[in-house]
Amino acid sequence: MLICIHFQMRLDLTILLREQKKKHSSAARVISTIKYLHNAGAKLVLISSWSPKADSQLLKLERVAEFLSSELELKVIPVELGSGLEQSLMEDGHNSDILLLENLSQFKQEQANCSEFARRLSSGVDIFVNDAFFQSHKILASNVGITSFCYSSIAGFHFDEGMSQLKKIIKMNKWPYYAIIGGANLAGKAAALQFLASRCDGFIFVGDAAFQIMHAFGLPVPMELVEQESLEAADMLLEAAKARGVKIVLPKDFWCVNDHYPLQMKTFPANHIMDGWKPVDVGPNTLEEMISVLSRCKKILWIGAIKFGASNQESAGTSKLAAILYNLSQKNCDLIVVGKQACETFVGKSSYVMADLIENASIVWEFLKGRKLHGLLALDRAYPFELNWDAIYANTTLPLVVDVGSGNGLFLFRMAKMRKDWNFLGMENNEKLVSRCLDHVSQSGMTNGYFIATNATSTFQSIVSSYPGDLVLVSIQCPNPDFNKTEYRWRMVRRSLVEAIADLLASDGKVFLQSDVKEVAVRMKEEFMKYGKGKLTVVHDLEDSTSHQDRWLKENPFGIRSDWEQHVIDRGAPMYRLLLLKSSPSG
């Protein structure tokens, strides 16, 4: 019997509409994902939003489908959201065709991450593939909400490469490492620049950002060029750079235009721009110093425009900088270019590019600010955590206990104190709670307990699979039910988590489930029985010392209660407990 797996792929069609299919471009990677899935026999549904700015002729769904058919050399069928999608997925005659759903930008539910809209998008879909990397910092129905309704959610080739490029920015592997910072709105980038100050050996400021730093140094700057809201951010950045010894390079001169005669240009020293003239580009002396500094670098990040806000013309400095960096990239210098204008200028220097190009600067700034990439966090295939287990635990050969949704950590702390022969790991989504727990671990000198801020539903497999010892116990206690949203009611216990636990649990390992809400406990039991791959069985106490007649455990088998469990018992309410056992292969 041939089983057809339905895949839904979120992509950024704007990339395909405006880019040429160069070998290592974003467009080429997106196309590779589509063709890979199609060649593997997947029934593929493409979802995206696209802007009319890309091509005014490509507004209608049918025209975009025709464009994609040409680009992919595959048949792409336009489909409207609703019954049209469901019908197309059921028709055997279209199994080799690719479906394209209508433009998501016309639905306000997309931006609102509406759960009902996400459910409609996922209708008939088994596996979700996110290849819209440039949208991953946003919370959308098509990249976050949809994952609640699919069996599995994974990343495409473009998304994968995007994450690798972000990691290269923060990786401290080559020195000297300089960042060329351009653009405006220094205040909005303050957190990102503070982070870069902890990674880079020097900053070269160009564009409008340069004036803010010059003003912070006390250099004369025309006040109309100073962003008042950026004064504090500039001062704090200078303090951080000074504390770490980060060198700061500022423009020495500027090309300026006359207010009354825009075609008249003249160079002025950076500290002496005459009235009636506005800077539009960096001057020759500035470029000369940049060449001198950058020629010694082994790693360079270029992010932000070189030209200034007052300029409507193409910056000659941008072109010259691109030429400089291109030559350096051929000489064992790692180069990362961020921003549409910078990438286009750099690519124009040669068809053979030895650099990492990221056209969307917004996602890079958000990443450097420490913001969550919600599209990434929603994926089941989480990126491997680089955990040094030997630095976390005194003895990594000890059996491991994982408490999923560890909350304030009281259960884990008490268990770790009682069982020194086990290591304990708390996985909790609330970063503030995890921070408090880690403070307690540090202050108490505990060597067999640790906490990670993460969504265990997505990351359990990638984190726990790297632990050197055996996983002997997993506990899930009192997940918080949201009865206003049916699809999120038991969102902690999902198929991906259950399957990961069933696979990683050692023989004779146990799973402890409990809740004070019977419906939640029943649902958790059903999920583990349904998706446990036949490896898990319910443990009953036939001597009736700890079991109710309906087979819920009467007492906590570990003798240690969580704070919520104690609260429930104190008010005289029941707890619904269950213990599952993983049978040995021979059993």
From TrEMBL:
The keyword Kinase applies. This is Phosphoglycerate kinase, cytosolic isoform X10. It comes from the Eukaryota. Keywords: Kinase, Transferase. It comes from Nicotiana tabacum.
